[in-house]
Amino acid sequence: MDALLASRQYAKAADFAADSIRANQGDQEPMGRKLRNEIDRLRTNKRYPDAMTLIDAVNRVDPQLAEQFLKSIRAREDEIRAHASGSGPQSAVGSRR
């Protein structure tokens, strides 16, 4: 999982998580935590397109992550989507108005 995330293979990472969860429900917590933390790391580093790619991959997997992780990811999704599309909040600092 770590190697897939580090190499930006987000769809494969999400599929790996789903396969792990399908094989063992006990993997729900570590897989969900890793994916959520990677989304947070990408958001913090302003890598919004990468964060959206990972979120989209997570949203497509079956079985889905536990609700606690999906809720956390969805809480960040709108903000990240706005930034990724270039319509995120703009700072007035440095503007010439």
Question: How are the elements arranged and paired?
Answer:
Blueprint: H1 2-6, H2 10-23, H3 28-44, H4 48-60, H5 67-84
Helix pairs in contact: 2-3, 2-4, 3-4, 3-5, 4-5
Question: What can you tell me about this protein's structure?
Answer:
With 97 residues, the chain is mainly alpha-helical. The protein is built from five helices and no strands. It has helices spanning 2-6, 10-23, 28-44, 48-60, 67-84. α2 (10-23) packs antiparallel against α3 (28-44) and α3 packs antiparallel against α4 (48-60). The chain is globular. Residues 90-97 have low confidence and may be disordered.
Short descriptors:
single chain; 97 residues; mainly alpha; globular; disordered C terminus
Indicate the radius of gyration in whole angstroms. Answer: 15 Å
Total number of domains: 1
Shape: globular
| Main beta sheet | none
Give the SSE string: HHHHH
The structure class reads mainly alpha
β-strand percent reads under 5%
Total of DSSP H or I helical runs spanning 4+ residues: 5
Distance between the termini: 47 Å
Oligomer: single chain
Mean pLDDT over the full residue set:
89
Question: What fraction, in percent, of the residue positions are helical?
Answer: 55-70%
How many β-strand stretches? 0
The parts where pLDDT drops under 50 for at least 5 residues are 90-97
